[in-house]
Amino acid sequence: MNGRKPIYVFFRSKKDARHLSKFGEVVFVSEKKNYACLYLNSGETDSKAAELKKLPFVKFVKKGQMMNLASDFGEAFADYIGETAIRNKTTEE
Q1: pLDDT value for 1
Q2: Which residues partner with 62 through β-bridges?
């Protein structure tokens, strides 16, 4: 399974974010909420997450769930278009 997966790392201080570039591509760092989003190769996510959890400045690590979400919205749009057509007919009558 090729591709990249996001990992969210919550840390204790803003200064600790600069150490995360060793583990993957740092895409976003929130200075206010003290977390960063890293993208890793899909085969490395479990091993790198375990390594990150062992670091003293890391509070916890979450894996991104975007890959697990359904991305086929065709049925939802068809239902919406059908409902609006029915409403338009009833208001015209």
Answers
A1: 45
A2: 8
